[in-house]
Amino acid sequence: MTDINPYIPFLSEIKEVIKHTDIEYTFRMTYSGNVNPGQFFEVSLPKFGEAPISVSGIGKDTVDLTIRRVGKVTDEIFENYVGDTLFLRGPYGNGFDIQNYLDKEILLVAGGTGLSPVKGLVDYFSANPKDTKGFTLLVGFKSPKDILFKNDFAKWEDNLNVIMTVDTPDDGYCGKCGMVTQYIPDIPIKNIENAVGIVVGPPMMMKCTIAELIKIGFKEENLWISQERKMCCGIGKCGHCKIDDTYVCLDGPVFNYTKGKFLRD
Amino acid sequence: MGYQINQDKMNAILTELSKKYKIYGPRRYVGDGTFAHVDTIRYGEVTTLDDIEFKEKSNYSFKEVLLPISETLFYFTENEMKEADAPHSGAIVFLRSCDLHGLKRMDTIYLKNGAVDTYYKRLRDNTKFILMGCEDSFENCFCVSMGTNQSDDYDAYLKIDGQNVLIDSHWDLLDTALAEMPEIQVIPDAVSQNKTVVEIPEAIPQSVIDSPFWEDYANRCIACGRCNFVCPTCTCFTMQDIFYTDNGKAGERRRVWASCHVDGYTDMAGGHAFRDNKGQRMRFKVMHKINDYKKRFGTQMCIGCGRCDDVCPEYISFSNCINKLNTLVKEEN
């Protein structure tokens, strides 16, 4: 029997920790192997459990995992990561296939940590601007102190059309305010028939954004979303992420909207 | 090959087999049921045929032999991990036709849907299945409607016939043990009708999710999950880490049975959850059993054993639900 036990995690070294906010850090982990933006790893902490975390960046022999401190496992990661290692399993899921977006106009709309699973795409098109006919990144955060990947934005702005907005500004903030949806109508898109939209964020934000994109003429088959669910295994066994006949861990988390719109929990 | 053998000799063969295999069958646990003076029938180790309850339906299925209620996956100490040993190196399971079909549903999830599950496979590969026939249908069974009343995919069929035992063997090891016995033709008993009949709706429209139909269950279901735990085709689990109080650096990761009816099943870190309404949990389960699984894998998931109807403390009937849903779908079309 040569099957590898898929439940036993491997040790990965923390190369760097990038602190975005008090509760959101990016952990740059050693990993060599194929991985797509939007795929995820189970970050595994013996004694505490596992948490599915999407890949927010892909480097040579590294992957970035942007972790938000919201639960039992992630609390422990933040408390005890110092100079250390983490156990990982994965990568799992389909992720975003760059081929679907090449040589097209792209509008990527992300809400909060929803930027993590698509950040690999932004990085790719920022480094290869010739592969797109126009790339707009529209991102919303709750407030200026929730902004993620601050250092990357400066770099992205060189090549891409970047619009960042916050729901609630604080003193000293002088950028855009309000929901992402209100900026959609002003985005210049030359050929809406062929433009692709990618939407990732909290459920309500995704719903409203998709509605807005369809309203301005995006075709459903050109829209892509990424879903988030509870997952205990990541390999189609535990059942927690199942929606109708779909396993988010195997068939997703990235879905074309023509399929994604039928997913009802 | 079919054989006739007396019970004492068969028990001797079982004793011999028990050196290599753990033998599991439905056992009667006197007074162990939910109420006073009520027995329960569930799977346990057996040594002789007398230990096996042949006359009644078991309250629980055989699934715990391959998917223990709580199963240690590995032990960890600092950065070392060790895969847990299998609970048995080989098993023989006595079960009925419906459950044998349930086994195929388990195989599909654990061997075919995504990566092969190491823990399931190592038990499954070394387990033999002995079919127990059904002369009569039990209460709430609807195997005929589900097409699971017959099965020839067994390692052996065994029937108690007075002092004798009739066997149909598909297993060479058993054939060898029975070589001296008179050969006769043995055809497994199978029911051809049940009192409970269900008609599964064809092409259930997705709009049924929003139907007030499920509200009835929202008020009745108490989210205890018993229907999931008795079901041979429910295979969900949740991971659980524990560590030892004497040594906080060592512990183990387990998986334990999970239920889509019980609170917390969809809870994500940060607090978001789906299907807060218990009626929607019923919808999720029913649609999985008679629609979603088939869409993905080509066969119905439910095997019609009726154990969920037997066990529900709120007297919710799954078979009734299917038939009512069928009427609803027909009315809407």
Automatic annotation (TrEMBL), chain A:
Binds 1 [2Fe-2S] cluster per subunit. [2Fe-2S] cluster binds at residues 233, 238, 241, 249. Its cofactor is [2Fe-2S] cluster. Pfam families: DHODB_Fe-S_bind, NAD_binding_1. Gene3D superfamilies: Nucleotide-binding domain of ferredoxin-NADP reductase (FNR) module, Translation factors. Residues 7-98 form the FAD-binding FR-type domain. One of its GO terms (biological process) is pyrimidine nucleotide biosynthetic process. GO terms for molecular function: 2 iron, 2 sulfur cluster binding; flavin adenine dinucleotide binding; metal ion binding; oxidoreductase activity. Keywords: 2Fe-2S, Iron, Iron-sulfur, Metal-binding. InterPro entries: Cyt_c3_hydrogenase_gsu (IPR012165), Dihydroorotate_DH_Fe-S-bd (IPR019480), FAD-bd_FR_type (IPR017927), FNR_nucleotide-bd (IPR039261), OxRdtase_FAD/NAD-bd (IPR001433), PyrK_electron_transfer (IPR050353), Riboflavin_synthase-like_b-brl (IPR017938), Sulphite_reductase_B (IPR014260). This is Sulfite reductase. It comes from Acetobacterium bakii.
From TrEMBL, chain B:
PROSITE patterns: 4FE4S_FER_1 (PS00198), 4FE4S_FER_2 (PS51379). InterPro entries: 4Fe4S_Fe-S-bd, 4Fe4S_Fe_S_CS, Helical_ferredxn, Sulphite_reductase_A. Coiled coil: none annotated. Pfam families: Fer4_22. Keywords: Iron, Iron-sulfur, Metal-binding. GO terms for molecular function: iron-sulfur cluster binding; metal ion binding. It comes from the Bacteria. Residues 210-242, 293-321 form the 4Fe-4S ferredoxin-type domain. Gene3D superfamilies: Alpha-helical ferredoxin (1.10.1060.10). PANTHER family: ANAEROBIC SULFITE REDUCTASE SUBUNIT A. This is Sulfite reductase subunit A. It comes from Acetobacterium bakii.
